[in-house]
Specification:
The chain is an alpha+beta fold and 162 residues long. The protein has two domains: 98 residues, Alpha-Beta Plaits; 47 residues, SH3 type barrels (Roll), CATH 2.30.30. Strands 12-11-10-9-13 form a five-stranded antiparallel beta sheet, with no helix packed on it. The chain has a four-stranded antiparallel beta sheet with strand order 2-5-1-6, with helices on one face.
């Protein structure tokens, strides 16, 4: 049974792995960012991987050894020893977003209850527990020894997992 799975790749080897997997006959997908950088006073378009170190491939779960033998592939993301399937709708959603004209950026997967660190703004470096996340994140800073806490709202884009 063929399904989408995620291959973990050697650092900076996304293009090599994509090429070898495609040559081996697998359907592959490597979502990319659209970025611009300035080099020697000129604006240059770049397309780094949206998820560095990972690409998606569609293959039969019983034939994973040939996938692992492809240049640049380190591992297949697995759960309990079996390649973890990725639902088609998740790949389709990412593909639809990448092909659209909408602006997008990668972001860490953070959930309510996780310890997070503020990475921008006046609270940069502060660590707290995420209580609520929408466009604004509700962060609770506590002094556990005395059982007291204070909460503050920060921009959700300004926090990352701690």
């Amino acid at each position: 049974m063929a399904f989408w799975a995620c291959a973990q790749l050697q650092p900076q080897r996304e293009r090599l792995a994509l090429h070898t997997l495609t040559l081996a006959g697998y359907t592959t997908y490597l979502p990319r960012l659209r970025q611009h950088r300035i080099s020697y006073g000129r604006r240059i378009a770049t397309t780094p991987a949206l998820f560095p170190g990972y690409c998606f491939a569609r293959f039969n779960v019983r034939e994973r050894l040939p996938v692992l033998k492809c240049a640049g592939v380190v591992n297949i993301i697995s759960f309990e020893g079996e390649p973890a399937p990725i639902p088609d709708h998740e790949i389709d959603g990412i593909r639809l977003l990448v092909e659209s004209d909408l602006a997008y950026d990668p972001c860490p997967m953070i959930r309510e209850g996780m310890q997070v660190e503020v990475i921008h703004g006046p609270l940069k470096g502060v660590v707290g527990r995420l209580v609520r996340k929408n466009e604004k994140a509700r962060l609770v800073l506590s002094v556990d020894l005395i059982g007291q806490a204070v909460s503050v709202e920060v921009d959700a884009a300004d926090v990352r997992p701690y």
